[in-house]
Design brief:
- GO terms for molecular function: ADP binding.
- This is TIR domain-containing protein.
- It comes from Arabis alpina.
- By secondary structure, the protein is of the alpha/beta class.
- It has 17 helices and 7 strands.
- The chain has helices at residues 2-7, 20-25, 28-38, 43-56, 70-88, 100-111, 131-142, 167-182, 194-199, 214-218, 239-244, 258-269, 280-290, 294-304, 309-315, 321-331, 335-338, and strands at residues 14-15, 62-63, 119-124, 148-153, 204-211, 231-236, 249-252.
- Helix 12 packs across helix 13 (280-290) and helix 12 (258-269) runs parallel beside helix 14 (294-304).
- The longest helix has 19 residues, at 70-88.
- The chain is globular, with a radius of gyration of 26 Å.
- Mean pLDDT is 80; it is low at 319-328 and 330-352.
């Protein structure tokens, strides 16, 4: 339990031929063995053991007395542990994300994971600020503590609902939600509300990424059907959407400080968080002109990667907006759809 608290490790409870209530209260045969073990031990050690057993007994686990066939139980347990290990393994792409530790710490504070309440958390900020990355890293770090978890890309739902009460749209979103939650293709659901029966009383982690329509939120599971400890994270650019469903816990993602912005740029331009020797002033200049938007810093870093110092110097004096458009166009086709404007990149200070 110490490792769970200090290192956020998973604890998987298996009660083999013992009543979980006896573990919690230290009674029955289990309590007798505990008392025998405690003989001659220090009081502080005994108190720590009592607390640990009390915490273990509250974790949803497997009670061998409920299984007729132990082999089947073991197979189910192994499968469940495998799934949790896979879901909790960090992605390679997460390495080297500048400043992400502080973002995740802030999210964990808002999530209040020790509470049994059903809590909604919003991540708010402009396009390219890093909302999706923060949500994904947070999801990967904490998902092992939930019975079910899903990361749902709402932008891919292609919703253009005329109003928030569009039944067909909600039906489509609920089917899509169930498909991603179960990792199976759900071809059809007969009516709205099927997801409530599926999730009834379960502790779940849900991330709704890129919400831009109220109907996307109204189609999701209602809090009263979800189990204690459930967390729902919503990323959006629109404060009004969060206000519409009365979300109180909101993380407003801010722009990185100057030094952090330089590191983000350098990771993409040089493959390290500092400039190469002789490139210091050039890196600072490009970072300054590119602005502090993390997505833009990554794109511009990728553009300059592999260039010689002479090529950097030749690139900087060019002031045409066309150059910025060419750079952005070569690196991404999604800037306009995300509302990101690099039209002023590489314009000298004072120019309109």
């Amino acid at each position: 339990m110490k490792c769970k608290k200090e290192f956020d490790q998973m604890v998987f409870a298996i009660f083999y031929e013992v009543d979980p209530s006896d573990v919690k209260t230290l009674t029955g045969e289990f309590g007798a063995i505990f008392n025998k073990t405690c003989a001659g031990k220090k009081e502080e050690d005994i108190a720590r053991w009592r607390q640990a057993f009390g915490e273990v007994a509250t974790i949803a686990g497997y009670d061998s007395r409920n299984w007729d066939d132990e082999a089947v139980m073991i197979e189910v347990i192994v499968d469940e542990i495998s799934k949790r290990l896979i879901s909790s393994s960090p992605s390679i792409y997460l390495k080297g994300l500048i400043g992400m530790g502080a973002h995740v710490d802030e999210m964990k504070s808002l999530l209040c994971l020790d509470s049994d309440e059903v809590r909604f958390i919003g991540i708010l900020g402009p396009p390219g600020i890093g909302k999706t990355t923060i949500a994904r890293v947070t999801h990967e770090q904490i998902s092992g503590g939930f019975e079910l978890n899903v990361f749902m890309d709402m932008e891919s739902s292609n919703i253009r609902a005329p109003c928030s009460d569009d039944y067909k749209v909600k039906l489509h979103l609920e089917r899509q939600f169930l498909s991603q939650l179960t990792n199976q293709e759900v071809l059809e659901i007969p009516r709205l509300g099927v997801v409530h029966n599926f999730l009834m009383g379960k502790k779940v982690l849900v991330v709704l990424d890129g919400v831009d329509h109220l109907v996307q939120l109204l189609a999701m599971p209602k809090a009263r059907f979800l189990g204690p400890g459930t967390r729902i994270i919503i990323t959006t650019q629109n404060q009004k959407l969060l206000n519409a469903i009365d979300i109180k816990h909101i993380y407003n993602v801010s722009y990185p400080p100057d030094a952090e912005a330089l590191q983000i740029f350098c990771m993409n331009a040089f493959g390290q968080n500092t400039p190469y020797d002789g490139f210091e002033s050039l890196a600072w200049e490009v970072t300054r002109r590119a602005g502090k938007l993390p997505l833009g810093l990554r794109v511009m870093g990728s553009h300059f990667r592999g260039m010689s110092k002479e090529e950097w110097i030749a690139e900087l004096p060019r002031n045409e907006v066309q150059q910025a458009q060419e750079i952005v166009g070569r690196n991404s086709t999604s800037w306009k759809s995300q509302g990101v404007d690099f039209g002023s990149f590489l314009l000298p200070e004072g120019d309109p």
